[in-house]
Amino acid sequence: MTSYLTCLIVFALCCSAHGSSIICENSYMYLSCTFPGQVLHVHSGVYGRTQGAVICPHPAMQTTSCTSTTSTAKVQSLCNGKKMCHLHASNSVFGDPCGGTFKYLEVKYACF
């Protein structure tokens, strides 16, 4: 049993990939796993704005504290278990958590 657990831990440490991607509102991204047999596992997906003009600067910025309450579940449903997925950062996909503010989508994921 110990050697099996050690093997799983070593595999997770050496053969998994972790990533984070950010795209601005109305843009597209592809998430993919490069190693054969690996699939995507989304940790979080945040659509909205949680920082000032550092990310996706835009004149329309009425708030810097808004997120879609369903964005993680939506990204997970589109990507989990797949080798590759296509995402569109838009109000039509995630709803509009903060009208008048230019938003972005940040996804944190792993491949294993």
From TrEMBL:
Signal peptide: 1-19
Presence of keyword Transmembrane helix: no
Pfam families: SUEL_Lectin
Keyword Signal: yes
Keywords attached to this entry: Signal
Gene3D superfamilies: 2.60.120.740
InterPro entries membership: Lectin_gal-bd_dom, Lectin_gal-bd_sf
GO MF terms held by the record: carbohydrate binding
Domain SUEL-type lectin: residue ranges: 23-112
The protein's name: SUEL-type lectin domain-containing protein
